Amino acid sequence: MNGWLKLYNHIIDDPKIRAIAPGDRWHFVALLCLKNNGTLDEPDELRDELIAISLGLQIDEVEALHKRLIRWRLVDANWQPINWSKLQQAQDKTGAERQRRFREKQAESKAVAEQALRNALPVTEQPLPEEEREEEKEENTSARGAGLNDVFEGWWKTYPRKKGKADALMAFKKLKAFERDAMLADDLDARYSDTEEQYIPHGSTYVRKKAWLDDLPRRVNQNRRNW
């Protein structure tokens, strides 16, 4: 049986959960695990004893716990968690296909951006004396600025939350060449494809705070079950 279950983060703000004693909160989470592994679906004559063993309680303590959880409508008379089926819906079957299309679109846009960068910037940047750096800066500002604009536009198409474009472009132009390379190499799919848009930083925030330097989130098995 699958070892994962859905445990929504709003459980910590649920007034019914907050109303019960801290020990009962832990027991309730343990009961969710027992439901997920099939223990709560055992015959009545075995179920209470298995629950007592799993929770480390005496039978009379299990009965008292059951009454408290029923009172707050967290479980029913048969120990079944309320709204279990609703909260444990199967994984969206279209999710894998949607992520595949997202990755293909991102890869295409990234290829365009990388080609534009190669056209705009030298492969290596040799250090120059101060005077020569200033002269080169004056000669190449317009051309390089236009090239960086193209690179930025290619990257902007791949970024999932398009807020603060002007600020993002300004910050992008201030980056050093190796920082731009690292930013363009960042796997935005791995970083944000499982994140709701409202929690993704604005594009300007991503660039200014150099978010590509942050560790990528750990991927979780797509077949998991969550409460």
Task: Give a verbal description of the structure.
The chain contains eleven helices and no strands. Helix 3 crosses helix 4, helix 6 runs antiparallel to helix 7 (130-158) and helix 7 (130-158) runs antiparallel to helix 8 (165-174). With 227 residues, the protein is mainly α. The longest helix has 29 residues, at 130-158. The mean pLDDT is 82. It has helices spanning 15-19, 22-36, 44-55, 59-71, 84-87, 95-120, 130-158, 165-174, 177-185, 188-192, 203-208. It is elongated.
Structure in a nutshell:
The protein has 227 residues and is mostly helical. The chain has helices at 15-19, 22-36, 44-55, 59-71, 84-87, 95-120, 130-158, 165-174, 177-185, 188-192, 203-208. It folds into two domains: 9-87; 95-213, no CATH class.
